[in-house]
Predict the 3D structure of the following.
Amino acid sequence: MARLADADLIELYRRMVLLRVFDERALVYHRQGRIGTYAIAWNHEAIQAGATFALGDEDWIFPSYRESPIGLVRGMPPATILQWWRGHPSGWWNPLDWRVASISVPVGTHVPHAAGLAWGKKLKGEPGVAMAFFGDGATSEGAFHEGANFAAVMGAPLVLVCNNNGWAISTPISAQTRAETLADKAKGYGMPGVRVDGLDVLAVFEAAREAVERARQGGGPSLIEAVHYRAAPHGTADDPRAYVDLERVEAERRSECVGRFESELRGRGLLDDELVAQLRRDAEDAMRAGIAEAEAEPPADPRLVFEHAYANPPAQIAALMRQEARSG
């Protein structure tokens, strides 16, 4: 905490609350049928807010589906992210506007993209670090290995943040690897690897700060393994009761990361009931406005599904597009 001013600590807490409220409200909106299937990020806020707090404005974020709301830390409107979950074209932003890449649903495929952007920055002599987020399951994918190895060989300014919550949907980490830790995988690529408590936002920030500084100074990529236990379902289509230890889930929920950081800041006299309530109200107001803005958008033209997919559409698709054009 000594590395951060009091105002920074409060801002870090504000971002965690904003991410938490987004997740809570998104789950409600899904149950109301107002957004589609949603990947729950509850209790991952310490990783998302802590790691990105070490970045500068010129740095890039490459999220997986678990980090869908991470653009909020850059000021992205909640409506934009909600529209992404609604499958509306207005939910696809220009990455250059926010330096946040498109959300990656395929597991691990964005790691080479992040490595490529980081390498490009190095080749052009431009400032900027790329930070890629992924789950423990991604470390079992070829794209992760290719991206990590490429970044290490090229000395690319890349920070790899592994959210190890113990589960790749229903596959436990013990069924994925015989490595003692996922951070140990960094050794095979010749890069530093560190393991931190994924519920300690300051530990995550400190690890990210060191990795970002190393990358800026030409030290190449690093791997951060943020360890915790998934205390919510994988997503809204998942029933984890079939495979998790429910008693452990309840125990983990009692030590969730937002309340843990709040207790630390209260102990330092930086937070009181009034400020805590105000920050939550602000986040809830932003979400209410976001869903209202998202739902005010007119329905998307269904022809967009095909418009940029084919130079010469197959006959059946072309017929559907003509039919839509006539009805529209």
Q: What stands out?
A: The first strand starts at residue 60 and ends at 62. The longest helix spans residues 6-31.
